[in-house]
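Action item from last week, closing it out:
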Amino acid sequence: MRSGELRCSLALLCMLTLAGCAYARRSGADAQSFRAEQNREAGVLLAHATASDLAAAALLLALNDPNVRQPSDLIERAQTLAPQRPELVWVHLAICGWLKCEARAQIAAHLQALDPDNGFAWTPDLETLPLSDSDAVTAVIARIGAARRITIYWNQLEVMMVDALAVASPSQDLATRGIDAIGILAAEVIPPLQAISRACRPEQLDLRGRRAACEAMVAHLEQSDTLLTQGLALSLQERWWPAGSPQRDVLHAKRRQLDYLMTVSGRIRRWRTNHDMAVRIEAARSTAREEDVARAVIMSLGLPLEPPVAWRDPVHPDQKTPMASRHIPVLDQAGSRKPVRSEDTLRPG
């Protein structure tokens, strides 16, 4: 994914989940008061000193000054208190990347040992490899794809931050806490995705073993725990197929469904913001994927879970409304027309 596309996707994630990317972009007097409030909140959490509160304090402080050691110390203390929580190791990995610490490889190895079922634990290995080392890149992509799931622990961390901000600022309403929590996480815990995107470009698929590795990884990405990473899976596959092909139509149907979940679940009803955020947070407590949270929010609004035929996609307005994917005709090996369902495997030719 080009850096501009990644920034666009990140901005979209923030907007559609009520987040504020302004968390990482304040300046002047506003930035000073913002940092002062974050420091105050972190101080309250330090006094509380649970594993979750220390991790939240580390995230609050990491944005303030990339040259300080305190956030790393705090997340290490959090891990000592809760050594079996992989989401805290993921936070440590993110903070290390943000602060450019030297222990990133060791932290990644710790996460791989603690949660070997999470393919994203191997993404730091991919980031350090040049594309010219094709066999090594393929091996890492294959390892990511061989994992049982791909997660950045989004729902768990969202709940952790919302609960921590309730301790730090108890008078703050739930909607504000939720938006702040999502903004912090969007700025800090989403991993770099360019290496994955580069490794699975169409011209890379002819390398030995790369096609199978990318297909396996993308299949898991489609079921990953954030709408952003699910969208990346669709973007990668869209590059593999020409415009107008049946496979591209299937992908457009999936994209339309994903955009519908993002936009409709992210609507702001100003007179119901606290209620809607409560629905979101309660769903995040009981589910592992952001997609499930979006569905819970949409159901609470009394709206359909599938985009109506007349629904216009504001994220990709130039895409035509596709036919229902189960009715898209393709030719089987005998030359007969048969339907392709969106859940069918999409394999580049």
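Closing note: The beta strands are 328-331, 337-340.
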